[in-house]
Structure formats: structure tokens, C-alpha cells
Amino acid sequence: MLDSTLLNTITESYADYIIHGVDTSDGFPCLEVECHNIAEFCAKLKQDPKLQFNFLSDICGVDYYPKTPRFEVVYHLYSITYKYRLRLKCKLAEEEKIPTVTSVWRTANWHEREAFDMYGIIFYNHPDLRRIYLWDGFEGYPQRKDFPLRGYRDEYNPFGEDSPSNDQGWSH
Amino acid sequence: MTEMTQLDSGVKNSNAEGAQTKEVLLNLGPQHPSTHGVLRLVMQMEGEKIVDLDVIIGYLHRGNEKLCESFTYTQIIPLTDRLDYLCQPSNNLAYVRAVEKLLGIEAPERGQYIRVMMTELSRISGHLLISGALPMDLGAITTLLYVMREREMIMDLMEMATGARMHSSYIRVGGIREDLPEGFTERMQEFCHIFRQRMADYETLVAKNRMFLKRTKGIGVITAEEAIDWGLSGPCLRASGVDWDLRRDNPYEVYDRLQFKVIVREGGDCYDRWRCRMDEMLESLNMIEQCLAQMPSDGPVKVDIPQIAFPGDKAKVQSSMESLIHQFQLSAYGFKVPAGEAYSSIEAPKGELGFYIISDGSEKPFRVKIRAPSFVNLQVLNAIAKRCYLADVIAIVGSLDPVMKEVDK
To answer: Given an 8 Å threshold on Cβ–Cβ distance, is B70 in contact with A76?
Structure first.
């Protein structure tokens, strides 16, 4: 199936879930989805016999600070049956939460934990949402754009930058 | 070997005879030879059986994705070398293809053949090491010493072509760094010839080893549905009977011109995953030989765009002012990439290796996301280890083939 036909099929059947299509420079079929609908929409995409997006390649968090809405969660889906790909995007405000897709693909578990660890994006209904790379006591979310590359100065990191006050958008 | 601590509040179970057992918490790693790096497993044990298992990673986390945001597109290539350090050309290729997608360029034909050849050579190197390391984890140390002999030949070939044994950064945006040296083709053919014979040795050394078969056959079975649900890819997925290989199904570079078999096995156990890798090595050998035969004997190996790639002829830089400026610009500031986003994935030795790059139009990427196959494949450990004995976990970890540097990014 061509990418344009694929997009048409999805937009026709699931118009309610989709905000709009996104033009991408690499010609990748891409859709923007309302964030509270994502789990339901993904389940539909997986179960639809015409689509069968049974493989979740990747979940990626993006921080567009200081733009609003600040965060974006990008899903890369693949259909092993039909060999085509789809990219879904959800925009999130700073305090907004997004439902987990672990009930659709179990592989989402670690991907979401990584996005939480690096960006502080909360995936609700997640079975085990805790930090994956960093230790439990770590403060802040390192891949946010307002987190300095060298980290904050403390007893283990003498070359880090000075801690900001909390009104600069950085929270514990 | 392992540290054992008894939980004060261990749950007491009684079996049929009324004897009391106590659950213990067992910690394996992070510094342990059979965890292939720094993997830590915390296991809740009931006797020798695992009740619950927690995989703890991150001991090698270097913040690669964050680092990428402050590096130019060329500076990121050495970072990708250090992901799966057994198969550097694969990592380079996956990253470089994403950048090329954003730039809208493609490597010349000869460059593409050399890329595929080096990627397949590195696939042999990666598969070879784990094929020897898995028996070693199970007690057959000899195998590892033998695979090192063949791996040394691959290292020599790498050194000959790239100048480096491990972190070669050979594949660059727009092509490869430089053409193959004289005599490389002959050395490669010689290697293919020798390696094919040595593969027969492994058959007798490992595949007919009764101890190895007992420890791997029927252990750590993953069904096809489970494998897809857990996002497995590469040999781990194909061993479970799912016929999916990006080289065939979404071909890139010159893979559509090569003849090869996708190895699929039905069992989904540790033995099948090991077997899958062994058979894939022979397929990679065939592909290398086809590349050598089909490759145009002459022609450019990188694009002729002075803003993106260094000129093939270095003398040009010393004679033309314009070339000198381009050389300086490229070395000092890198090149600008049009704003946009691209996802590119290849069939790396461990599975689907994807790079998702968001560009804001500057010399440095806005966001780089690495879809590391080892990271995703390791996750399934949680589900399958719950049904087995402690000793089997060693076999399962080895058969999943995680490279911890790639897991921790």
C-alpha cells in the first residue's frame, strides 16, 4: 500500500481521533493525535485487519522548550504483516499526562520509562513507571532543554552549573 | 560469584509435604562475567526457581542522545561507533542514512557496495563473538578462544580498510571516508574462503556438544506473538518463527540486488537464537562475495558536494582556494541540515536499529533518538525468566545477545 493510500484509509476510518496529518520532509506518513485518545487509537490500529500495526518500533519524547505546548511524544509503528510504517505525534503541555500504550504493545513499557526518566512525561496507568537509566534520587530530567549539558553542581559534579531557582521552569 | 541476601520478611510457603520454604532475594551483577557487561538482575527466588525478576540497567548510561544535541552532524558519527561496539559500521550506517534522508542525498554506487560489505563483515564479527560467548557462559570456554582467532582476521580487514580496529567511523554522510586500499579484495576473498571452512569446525565443537544442547534446547522459549508484542527484532525475532528482515522487506542501499536467504527458525528457544546467528553468518559471507563480484571497479565512493563531504582528491585542497575554504568550513563548523525530521532504520546484527532525527536547520540536531535493538530485546527477559531456573537465566541472557553499551546508550 502506498503511503498516501494508507493515510487516506486511516483518516477515513478514524477521523475522530486525528487532529490533522503532518507533512514530513522524509515523506513518512505522520498523524497528530489527541493525547488522551492515544491508547484507544493505537489499539484500533493494531486490531484493524486492514492495517495490523502489530509492532511498536519506538516511543520518543521531545522537548520544545520554551515553546508551548512544551512536550511531544512520537510513536513509530510498523506492520510486520504489510510492511508499512506510521508515525503518530501527541503534543503535551508541561503538566499534562498521557495514557500508556503498554496494554496495546508490552514493549512500550521500557520506552515509556525512558521518556519519563529523561523528560518527566507521566504516562498514566503504566504498570511500573520509575526511572530506568538514572538512580532513584536523581533530581530533574536531564534531556529537557533547560537542563544544562554539564548537569548541576553538587558534591559529585564540581564542574556543573549552579542550581537554578525553581521559577525557571525546573522542578524536582 | 553471586551475592545472596536473605529477606527478613521472606514469604513462607508450604509445599505438599508441609515443609516450609522461604523466598530469597538474589542479586546477579552488575559486575559478573556472564552478564556481558554491566547488567544487574535482582531475582526473587523460591528454591532454584525464579518467582520475580527485575532488570536494572543504566550503569553505562552516557547520555548519548543529550550529547548529540551539542555536537555537529559529523561529530556524532564516533558516538554511534560506541553503541554496539562489535559492529560499528552498522551503527554508522543507520545514523548516516537518517542524515542523508534529511539532506536528500544518496551515496554513489561503489560507496553503497562498500557500505553493505563492511556492514555484513561487522555482522559476522558481532554474531561470531556471541556465538562463542554463549557456550562460554555455559562452561565451554574453548569456543570463545576459537572465535577470537577468526575475529582477529575481521579486525585486520577492518584495520586495513579503515585504519582502526574497533571504532572506525568509516561510513560518513554522503558515502564512506575513503576508497578500499589495494589488495583488500584479495584479502577479503581469502577470509571468506578460510571462514567457510572454520564454520564446519564449530558444527562439531558446539552444535554437536551434548552439554550445550541440553542447556539451550527448549530453554527460554518465546512464542511468535510474544516476540512481536515485546518488540523483539533481528535473530531473536526470527528464531521465534517471524519472517521479518528489513534487508529484504524494506531494502536499503544495494540489498535489493543481492541474493540471500532470511534465516527463520520455529522453536524460539536459546538454541534456535544461537543457530539463527550461525546460519546468518554464512549468508553474510555470501553477500560479501556478491558485493565483491558486483561492485563497480572504479568510481566515486562519496558524493561530490564540497559542503558535505571532503573532496576525494586531497591535492585539490592544496591548489584551489575554494576547496580550501570548504575544507575549513566543514572541519570547523560542519554543515547545515534542512529543518525537518527523519526516521531511518536498518537491520543491524542485534535487530532493528533506528535513528530518529529532528533538525531545526542548524549544524547540530535538535533531537536524536536511538532505537537501540539491544535495549528493546533485553526487556523480554522479565517475561520469560519467570518460568525457569537460575542457571537458565545465564543461557537466556547470552542468547538474547545484549550489548550493554547499546542498552544504556
So the answer is: no
